[in-house]
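Appendix B: complex inputs.
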Amino acid sequence: MPSDIHPHATLPRHFKEVLLGQKGCVLWFCGLSGSGKSTIASALEQVLHDKGRFCIRLDGDNLRTGLNGNLGFTDDDRLENVRRTAELAKILAANGVIVLCSLISPRGAFRDLARGILDEDFTEIYVKADYATCEARDPKGLYAKAKDGKVKHFTGRDSSFEEPQEPDLVLDTEKLSVEDAAFEVLEYLRGKGIAL
Ligand code: ADP
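Resulting structure:
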C-alpha cells in the first residue's frame, strides 16, 4: 500500500452481521458461458431473499455494463475483471452481505487471485456443463456467433477453460435442475452455518 494512503476504520463486521442476522460470504460461481451460473445465482437469490437473507449479485455481464465496462476478454482484462469484482465482493461481505458472483473466471490463476483477496469468505462453486451442452443451450447466441468466428477469445473455443481442481461445490447442470442446484448451495451454506 502506498505510504500516503491511510485507510479509515469502519464499523466492525460483527455489527453489520448482527443487524442483518446473517454472516457475510461470497459464493463464486464459475463455468462456461451458458453453464447456468446466472440462472442458478438468480434462483438462489430469490430463495435466500424469501428467507429474509440480504444478498447482492455481482454478475459478470452486468458489471461489464458499468464498473468493468472498459475491460475486454484478453487474459489481462479478465484478470482485472476478476480482481475488481473480488475487491467489491470483499467490501460487501465485510458488511455482512451474502454475495453471489457469477463470472466465467476461466483460469485457475484468476480464481486463485479471487481466493487470495477474499480468503475465508471465498466459496468456489463450479457450474459444470460441457461445451456441447452450452452450445445447444446458447442463451445469448454467443456459441453460434463464435462458430462463425465473430466472438474474439471465446471461452472453450479459442480461449481455454481450466476446470477447478478442488472446488467447494460442483453443480452439474447436465444432471441437476435449477431448483435442485440452488437447493444444493443452500444445504452447503447451512452446513457451514452461513445462512440458516
Ligand atoms: P451463464 O450465466 O453460465 O452464462 P446462463 O445462466 O445465462 O449461463 O444460461 C444458462 C441457460 O441454460 C439458461 O437458458 C437456462 O435456462 C439453461 N439451463 C438448462 N438447464 C439448466 C440447469 N440445470 N441449470 C442452469 N441453467 C440451465
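DSSP finds eight helices and five strands in the chain.
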